[in-house]
Structure formats: C-alpha cells, structure tokens
Design a protein that fits this description.
Largest sheet: 6 strands, mixed
CATH superfamily: Phosphoglycerate mutase-like
CATH class: Alpha Beta
Distance between the termini: 32 Å
Shape: globular
Number of strands: 6
Number of helices: 5
Order of helices and strands: EHEHEHEHEEH
Number of domains: 1
Strand content: 15-25%
Structural class: alpha/beta
Length: about 170
C-alpha cells in the first residue's frame, strides 16, 4: 500500500488578531495558492489514492479538499479522524488504517510534528527523520500496516514543486 502523508498548507498565524481558535485556523490565500500548486503537480504524477483521510481541523480539511479537486476525487468522501490531530499517537492511526478495507493507496492530511512522528513510525525509527514543510508530501510504501513497516519512496517540498513547475 502507498501511504501519502500531506501537511496542511500555510494557515493564518496564531499571532494574528483575527486568528480563530486552533481547530478553526484556516488557510491563507497564499496557503491556498501554494497548496493548489503542489496538489496539481502531485496529481499529475500519481494514481489517485482510493482513500483520503484528514484531521478534522479546518486547515487540514481545506488541504484535503484542494488535493481531492486535483485528484478528481469527491470531497464528500474525505474521511475525518482524530488520529491525525496534533499530539495523536501514530500507533492509533495505523490501528485505524488496519481496520479499513484493503486499498492500494491512502492519502492523509494533518499537522506537524505529528505527521513526522507518523512517518518515523512507518519506517520503524525511534525518532523523527523528517520535518515536513507546509503542503509538503511524503510517500511511503507500506509492506504492513499493523505493525507499520514501510520504506520512504519520496518526499517533496513545496519549493521543489514550484521549481519543477517552472522547469528549473
């Protein structure tokens, strides 16, 4: 199974006087633009995953919806899980994923540093090996979901996507 792990795009700054509570923080116009660029490029390179799972926080759901559009997937099929919230245990996400009907590909959307912990757990590492940038994407090939055992296939930053898109 291919597991795509996507960090949410650029959200309104916590210090902004207009900033809502953390669960309600939303993507900025720049965050929407950059996330859309990444989503379109990734969608042109991969087969659309059968399952999209997101943290219920607004910024993660917005990111999931942008990717769903780019992948020609129905936004209504995005599943929400608390196991992708900040501070969630990676093992709980993998247990939940293990109970899902077998699928070839899964794309999940969440937050740092939890997603870096998820990547490390999938790779069998005791400490974080990555630091996903906002709208960054990692692809892991999972040989087993429970317990997780996989290998990193690729990881891309939004900056790399922009340079690839400009042909540089």
């Amino acid at each position: 199974m291919l597991l795509y792990i996507v960090r949410h795009g650029i959200a309104i700054d916590r210090e902004d006087p207009k900033c809502p509570s953390d669960p309600e923080r939303y993507l900025t116009p720049e965050g929407i633009k950059r996330t859309s660029e990444v989503a379109k490029r990734i969608a042109s390179l991969i087969e659309a995953p059968k399952l999209l799972i997101s943290s219920p926080y607004v910024r993660a759901m917005q990111t999931a919806e942008i990717f769903a559009d780019a992948l020609d997937s129905a936004k209504s099929k995005i599943e929400k899980t608390d196991h992708l919230l900040p501070g969630a245990e990676p093992s709980a996400f993998f247990r939940e994923l293990g109970r899902k009907k077998t699928v070839d590909g899964v794309m999940c959307f969440g937050h740092a540093p939890q997603l870096d912990e998820l990547i490390s757990a999938a790779l069998g590492a005791k400490k974080n090996l990555t630091e996903l940038k906002k709208a960054g994407v990692a692809c892991i090939e999972l040989a087993h979901v429970q317990p997780p055992a996989g290998k990193l296939v690729w990881l891309v930053t939004p900056r790399a996507v922009r340079k690839l898109s400009k042909g540089k």
